[in-house]
Write a structure and sequence with these properties.
Elements lengths: L11 E3 H7 L4 H10 L5 E3 L2 E5 H8 L22 E6 L5 H14 L3 E6 L4 H10 L4 H7 L2 E5 H24 L6 E6 L9 H16 L3 E8 L9 H8 L3 E5 L4 E4 L1 H5 L6 H4 L1
Parallel strand pairs: 4-8, 4-9, 5-6, 5-7, 7-8
Antiparallel strand pairs: 1-3, 2-3, 9-10
Helix pairs in contact: 1-2, 4-5, 7-8
Length: 268
Amino acid sequence: MATSKPNGEQPLLRVEEVAQLLRTTPRTVYRWLNDGKILGKKVGRSWRIPKQVVADLAGEGIETEVGSVRKASALFGQGEHLLALAPEREAVAGMMVRLVEMGLQHRYRIFAGCWSFAPDELRKLMRSLGIPTDALEAEGMLTIADFSTAFDAEGAEGVLQEWRKLVDASQQDGPPLLAIGAPSLDCWDEHSGRLVEFEAALNELWHEADAVSVCVYPLSDFVPARLWRVGTLISHHTGVLLWSETELMLLRPEEFSQMFITPDWARN
């Protein structure tokens, strides 16, 4: 509950309250405080943030105890279908969590589709970083699904059906949607041509949607025999996400094409 201040001062919110109102994590709020992105004050050893500071950050009024923020600030363009590259398989779940955290900071509703690991594995990692998965799932702000079951049952078409249902549901009123999937190339070895068709269908599906989707692939899966798929996958996404330790880089396909020079022999 917010702390009331005498003498007409505005009420102060605890870090946990601010995180809940802004659909983010306490860790993120602490980072904002330390970086000076939001102003707070120390009460003993704990931080307190004025209610108006949080309201200004959200861009709209916030109820002190229960209110939720539904207005989303732009993270990516709507209708984006992005390719995210994790360094290895073990980093895929971590990259998904980073995307979830970014989406929550910008007040997106989150959908996460797990292929190469179980949904509970992703939930456990989220909780370890302070993301209140139980509360978010109960509010409908977070959905975690098992896509490996849909793929095993009906192949790529089974997963596409799940994505179509999600896109149809996203057209309803409410916060915009950030959908994250993490397919493994192992399941496509027997259907290499189908992978291209699948991503092309997703690209077309998300183009008209009021939502953002991100496909997370591990770079370590692109062994020499599969390396050609990198360029093919890029061509069926609106951008590529790369992470360093401290920043996110978003590259567009046209930026890649500018780096290549057509040799003389190919012009004839």
